[in-house]
Amino acid sequence: MLRKTIHYTEYFGITAKEVPFEDLDAYGDTKLFLDPHAIRIISGTEPYRSRAVDSIDTFLHCLTTRVLSHEKDSGDLLSHISEPKETHLGLVCTGHSGHAGSDFIAQQIWLALTTDLEALLKVGVLKHLEDLPLFVNGIDRDITSDITTRVIFDVLADFTHDCCSKYPELNQHGTITLAKDVWDPIQRKWVERSYKLPAIDGMPFVLIPKGWCRKQLLGSARRFFQIGSMGYIQQKQSRYDGVGKLLKPTKKMLKKQYSGSVRNTNVSATSTALGDNANIVEEFWKYVDEYYKAHIVKAA
After folding, report:
1. Is the dihedral of CA 99, 102, 108, 114 positive or negative?
2. What pLDDT score was predicted for residue 205?
């Protein structure tokens, strides 16, 4: 028997027609994911947006610096990316206490950055957190959402506190003081802080600004494969015949040719394109941003 979804506004008795936060399932995980690129380009959520972007950018910068310094491991940087329990986001069907973002994922990220992706880091092609899902095996929407949440948790906690001031109903079931290791973009390290958060059935939670979550990431490995990698390879393999007609292989043909790992193809195509002075990662994000403005923002 399907359980009826009870959203935050219903659970807390908030009658406002519009709220600035994602109105998620109070008793389980909603199949939505924090998207770092959506946060980067969305408008109307200041000052939280700029603070969140600063957090995710300084985090990746510190990680990149450590990689390029040829450190043996990531130190403390990747030791805090386990799945947060306070967002009610993700793929868990019952409850909200999944087990993604483990030490194994941290090892996968570090291994990828120090091997296949080190060359792309050196030339500045990989410069944002949202670039990782394009190239690192095992990093998809769920893991990306978990990492993003952990890195911007301080921002989410402050947003939640401000919402509680505007909607006092959020505090009616009590509050809980939660100690959490959070990323400090000024000190550029993880620090422990305490937060007074609203609770549902004795469990603390944080609110997410509206528009920061999506069912699918704006930039996924497969989308980059189809638009960035295949687009470049298609152009690379195009030739003119004897009468000046451009012969271009179809993407369907190319997908059969490149039927192996999507992410491996993304790495090789990006690296090859650099030799032609082409940055297909940058071009891909330009395409994503234009699509977002034309189809998603306009339709909202």
Report:
1. positive
2. 96
Rounded CA separation 7/25 (Å): 5
- Distance, first Cα to last Cα, the chain: 33
Phi and psi at 104, nearest 5°, equal: -60, -40
Residue that the structure tokens 């505090």 belong to: 171
d(CA 191, CA 238): 53
Give the helix/strand (H/E) hosting 133: helix 132-135
Does pTM surpass 0.85?
Answer: yes
Q: Which residues contact 15 (CB under 8 A, 6 or more apart)?
A: 9
Q: What is the mean pLDDT of residues 19-34?
A: 94
pLDDT number for residue 98:
41
Can you name the residues that pair with 194 across neighbouring β-strands?
179
Q: How many CB atoms lie within 10 A of CB 192?
A: 8
Give the Cβ contact number of residue 65 at 10 Å.
13
* Predicted local confidence at residue 236, as pLDDT: 87
**If you compute the radius of gyration of the chain from its CA atoms, what whole number of angstroms results?**
21
Residue 7's beta-bridge partner residues? Answer: 25
Q: How confident is the model over 190-239, as pLDDT tens digits?
A: 999 999 999 999 999 999 999 999 999 999 999 999 999 999 998 888 88
Tokens representing 4? 């009826």
Which of these, 290, 144, 127, lies nearest to 217 by C-alpha position? Answer: 144
Question: Which sign does the torsion angle of CA 120, 124, 84, 18 carry?
Answer: negative
Supply the angle between the helices 153-166 and 141-151 in degrees, to the nearest 10.
Answer: 70
CA distance linking residue 124 with residue 300, whole number of Å:
34
Query: Domain-by-domain residue ranges, the chain?
Result: 8-219, 221-300
CA-CA-CA-CA torsion for 124, 48, 134, 64, nearest 10 degrees? 40
